[in-house]
Write a structure and sequence with these properties.
elongated; alpha/beta; six-stranded parallel beta sheet; Rossmann fold; two-stranded antiparallel ribbon; single chain; about 325 residues
Length: about 325
């Protein structure tokens, strides 16, 4: 891992759901990943390479993991068609617009009805996803390249990644790690995790956003970060950058990613490749190897001076 030294803005990174369930087509045991994103494995390699390129001068890496029970509100197992006598679950990608017409929940009916109605009041819909990232399964694990680079970064930096699991509540959809889908930010925002992601010192910094998927979880994360930046008065200090070669979309959902870009680019969010970001900060980065050469030269000079003193003493 190449070590870099940053002379101006600090660099922080958030990796959203870079898990086997989104990045790989199949698990090692051969299970198909129904929500595999296009070029997911390549995007993870790009994340891994960037972590290696920046090295210990990444001030902090925050990581989220999607983690569901089979009975999660966003999965079809807990829903049924109330118009039929037989138990029929909704197919993947069904949108629940109005509770009980026809889709109803097998349990937590009152809570589920209220949630769907709240989403509807905000012109939002509950999507039923295929089973993915279930607790204790291979799909829940971080993708191999990402996991390896995080371990190496922890060894080099003597820091620990900031990890948060989301999707643990059976009755809320959580695309963003900061605020559940459809909830009010003012009262339900995870300020603790947000402060950990951007840093308590509020110094000028870049926050690199990576992971899956730009159409959904990354999109919700970016929108929440934009809100939080404005809430904290950090529009100038915190530069949000989505790395386009380190993210992908859910199949068929590119339009949602395009909507995000159109919405947040005017608010100052940049969409760059990792190469473009490195070019942006190249004047701030000094290769640590060059510094080591300078330090070695100083040590040689000091040793020569000590030798001269010893020679004079002996004379």
């Amino acid at each position: 891992m190449l070590k870099m030294k940053l002379s101006k803005k600090s660099i922080r990174m958030i990796i959203v759901d870079a898990q086997i369930g989104f990045a790989e087509e199949k698990t090692q045991s051969g299970q198909k990943c129904e929500l595999s994103c296009p070029e997911g494995k390549l995007k993870c390699k790009n994340i891994s390479q960037l972590i290696g390129r920046l090295g210990e001068e990444l001030e902090m890496i925050s990581v989220t993991q999607d983690s569901h029970n089979l009975g999660h509100i966003g999965l079809g197992y807990s829903w049924y068609d109330s118009s039929k006598s037989d138990l029929v679950h909704p197919p993947a990608f069904t949108e629940v617009v109005e509770y009980g017409k026809p889709w109803a929940r097998l349990y937590e009916e009152k809570t589920s009805r209220e949630y769907v109605e709240k989403l509807g009041s905000k012109r939002m819909k509950l999507t039923i996803w295929p089973p993915h990232c279930l607790k204790g399964t291979e799909q829940e694990l971080l993708q191999e390249d990402v996991q390896k680079s995080l371990t190496e970064w922890e060894e080099v930096s003597s820091k620990s990644c900031n990890l948060l699991k989301k999707g643990m509540s059976n009755n809320l959809e959580e695309y963003s790690p900061f605020c559940a889908y459809g909830q009010d930010r003012e009262s339900r925002f995870n300020f603790t995790f947000a402060n950990e992601v951007i840093g308590e010192d509020l110094e000028p910094s870049y926050l690199l956003v990576t992971g899956f998927a730009l159409s959904h979880c990354v999109a919700a994360t970016v929108r929440d970060l934009v809100w939080f930046r404005q809430f904290k008065g950090l529009d100038e200090a915190l530069e949000l950058i989505v790395l386009t070669d380190c993210t992908s979309v859910v199949n068929g959902c590119q339009e949602l990613a395009d909507d995000l870009i159109a919405e947040v680019e005017p608010l100052g969010v940049k969409f760059l490749t990792s190469a473009q970001f490195l070019d942006l900060v190249k004047d701030q980065l000094v290769v640590e190897e060059e510094k080591e050469v300078i330090e070695l030269e100083k040590e040689v000079i000091e040793l020569e001076e000590e030798k001269e003193v010893i020679d004079l003493t002996e004379d």
